[in-house]
Fold this sequence. Notes:
By secondary structure, the chain is mainly α. It has two domains: 16-156, no CATH class; 158-337, Farnesyl Diphosphate Synthase (Orthogonal Bundle), CATH 1.10.600. The protein is built from 15 helices and no strands. It has helices at residues 3-17, 51-59, 62-65, 72-93, 99-117, 125-137, 141-156, 163-185, 191-210, 212-217, 225-230, 235-239, 245-268, 278-296, 311-327. The protein is globular and about 55 Å long.
Amino acid sequence: MTKASRRNVAAVAVAGITGLGIQLSPKPADFHRNAIQIRRRTPAFSMQPSASEEITRKSASNLALAFVLLPRERREAMSALYAFCREVDDIADEESRPVAERQAELNRWKDDIRRTCSGGQPELTVNRELQPVIQRYKLPVDLFLELIRGVEMDLDIKRYETLVDLEEYCYLVASVVGLLSIEIFGYRHSACREYARHLGLALQLTNILRDVRVDAERGRIYLPLEYLRRHGLTEAEILSGRYSANYHSLATELAEVAREHYRKARELLPRQDRRSMLAAELMGAVYWRLLRKLDGQGFNVFGPKPTRLSKPQKIFLIVRTWLRSIAGAMVPNYGTP
C-alpha cells in the first residue's frame, strides 16, 4: 500500500467515525452474497440526517466508531439504535436531577418504546426514527425494556456485592445492546446470541476497569465488594483513588474474568457469521487493546486522565479489521494469550 493510499484509508476511517457517511468498501465478489454487502448504497428505507445521527456523531464512543465498517443501511439503523441507548443512559446519569424525576423520564421512555414496537405512534423523536428499524429487523421490545432496567439500576445501586450481581448489570447494559445489534448485522447461527452475550460482558468489564476513578468521583464502586474483601481493600481506598499492590491484584483478577469472556466470544463466533459480525469484531479488537493497555500500566487508572486508545491506534484497528476481512482472515483478533 502506498503512502498516499494509507492516507486515503485513514481519511475514510476518520470520516466514517465522524458520521459523514463514507464507507470502507471491501471488493471480494463473495461479499455480495453475505450479510454485509458493503458496496450496496441503496437502503430499503432511508433516513435523512436525523436526531439519531447527530447524537451518534457527537458521542465519539467506541460503539459509534464501529459503524464505519457497516453498509449505509445498517449504519443508519445502528445510529438509531445507538441514539436510543445513549438517551436512556444519559437520563440515568444526569445526577443534577432528582432520582424520582429521572425515573419518571425513564418510565416515559418505557411506555414510548412499547408503543413504538407495537406499531403505534411514538411520541419521542428518537423512537420515531427507530421505529422503521424495529420493524425491518424485528427488534423485540423485551430487549429494549431490559436495557432500560439496566440503566435504572444506576439510579439507586452504588455497590455490587458479588461478581454475579455485577455481571447481571453488565448483561443488561451491554450484552442486551449486543443482542439488539446482531439482529441489525444479520446472522445465520443461533450461537451468535451467546457470542454477543459474552462479548458484551467482556466490553463492559473492560469499561469498569478503565473508569474506576471516574465512577468513584460519583460515589459509585462497580468492583464487586467480595473482591475488595478478598484483596484487603476498603471502599474508602477506592473512593479516594488510592493505588496499591492490593488494588493491582484485585484489578488483575477482574481482568482475567473479562479475558475469559473475550475467549468465550472468540470461540463461539460461528464461522459462517464472521463477516456479518465485522463491526462487533472491531469493538472486540478495540476493547481488547484497551484491556492490554490497562494491564501494561498495572491497572493504575487513578491519574487525572482516563486511559484511552489514541485516534491513530483506533484507525489502525479499523484498517486492520477491514483488511483482514478482505483477505478472508476473519478469526477474532482478541481473546488470545
